[in-house]
Specification:
Alpha-Beta Plaits, 2 domains, 18 strands, single chain, 24% strand, 10 helices, Aminopeptidase, alpha+beta, 425 residues
Length: 425
């Protein structure tokens, strides 16, 4: 699988901090050391409740971005430190705002650090009414999700910045990235420019799960649009004159299942997944289906094996098209268009961001554990863009469902971790 080492392109091309250590021994700061700085949890809770209530599905993140900017400006962030890029003009869904990028010059020497999260939520979270219920936050409207994926991550990053700004806490150079359109293809991270981020040397993505889980790698994903052209005919009068696009699709999928190329795919010691997830076909029961469109995907940490899964899918549909024929020998036609959504990556255990994340989690008395994700993350594209990025959880539970909740103790621990990562040198 592709591997980003501790001496990756991102590390070698990054610039060093502009603030240099003085020759004389520096004076101790009046602030307590970063290891014991208490996070402002009251403000963090106010921020997350505020952000959860703002709709912002993929492509419609402008309102949430404006609220983030208001929190930052009220905390004293200079307007010149806040910028938006043009990533939304390059995405399939033409959004109403680009990535929100904030750069804060360091008051301490050290490598630039990036803290990031994505602003968009899935449609089921539109209309969420966040309320505190004991040790969790949930939506008071049982028909909606909460949107903790990833407003919790946004709140962690924003609360950290607000505390640093208001309390004038010493910190190395910082970049904050609030990304767009993660839920529909990781597009914000895909189209962000490393140069716009100040070329950070340590990067931390707050998105999903337990705080002690440190995600250092993720699978790669490939999507396919499959179009089947059949031959229409009357299903009652002359079905033999038609070629059913639905029959072709059914044979292809059945072959994939039978041969072990659908679902969990394990071949010759390699492992991946595939799925045919969407089918649109036919117009009426009395018409042999003239066309069908399907959407499928293949995932895998090994790009070569993932390619074999893709070829197996293509072959299954091509073979099925040859098997379904009309009485005069006509057959259907299949076309497949595919694209790489994101490539797999794996950070080295000694990557600086991994070392820092483990130390920050351990400082809370938790046991950090390294994890590999079978889903895509913004970190996939950050790595591809030359910015090795580790992903940390914020306490989100049952995401993308109406049962979604945010574990408040875990969220608060994530705030503590983020403050340490942003202020430690």
């Amino acid at each position: 699988m592709p591997r980003v080492s501790a001496r990756s392109k991102a590390a070698s091309s990054s610039t060093t901090a502009s603030v240099r250590r003085p020759a004389a021994k520096p004076q101790r700061s009046a602030s307590p050391p970063a290891a014991v700085l208490p996070a402002d949890l009251a403000t963090a809770r106010a921020i997350v409740l505020d952000l959860l209530a703002i709709p912002g599905v993929s492509g419609d993140e402008k309102a949430i971005a404006e609220r983030i900017v208001k929190w930052l400006r009220d905390a004293g962030c200079p307007a010149g430190s806040i910028a938006f890029d043009s990533a939304h003009t390059k995405t399939p869904v033409k959004g109403n705002t680009g990535n929100l990028i904030v750069q804060l010059p360091g008051t301490l020497p050290g490598p630039r650090r990036l803290l990031m999260a994505h602003m968009d939520t899935v449609p089921v979270c539109r209309g969420a009414k966040p309320v505190v219920a004991g040790k969790v936050i949930k939506s008071a409207d049982p028909t909606t999700g909460l949107g903790g994926d990833d407003r919790a991550g946004v709140a962690v990053v924003l609360a950290t910045a607000v505390q640093i700004l208001k309390s004038k806490l010493p910190h190395p150079p910082l970049t904050l990235l609030f990304a767009i359109q993660e839920e529909i293809g990781l597009y914000g991270a895909r189209f962000v420019k490393a140069a716009d981020l100040g070329k950070p040397k340590l990067a931390f993505n707050f998105d999903g799960g337990a705080v002690e889980k440190i995600t250092v790698g993720a699978t790669g994903g490939y999507r396919m649009d499959i179009a089947i052209e059949g031959v229409p005919s009357h299903a009652g009068v002359a079905p033999e004159k038609g070629v059913s696009a639905i029959a072709i699709a059914a044979l292809a999928i059945a072959a994939l299942v039978h041969d072990g190329w659908h679902g969990l795919v394990v071949k010759d010691g390699k492992r991946g997944t595939s799925n045919v997830g969407v089918i649109h076909a036919g117009s009426a029961t009395n018409v042999v289906a003239e066309s069908a469109t399907l959407r499928a995907e293949a995932r895998g940490h090994d790009s070569a094996f993932r390619g074999k899964i893709v070829k197996a899918i293509e072959k299954a549909f091509a073979d099925a098209a040859k098997k379904v024929r009309s009485v005069d020998g006509s057959c259907g036609r299949v076309t497949v268009e595919g694209r790489l959504d994101y490539e797999a990556f794996r950070l080295a255990d000694d990557e600086p961001c991994v070392v820092a994340a483990r130390a920050a989690v351990a400082a809370l008395g938790l046991s950090p554990r390294l994890d590999i994700s079978n889903g895509g993350l913004d970190a996939n594209w950050m790595a591809a863009n030359g910015v090795p990025t580790v992903t940390l959880g914020c306490g989100q539970m049952d995401i993308h469902t109406t049962n979604e909740k945010l574990d408040l103790p875990a969220f608060e621990n994530a705030c503590r971790v983020a403050l340490r990562l942003a202020t430690a040198t």
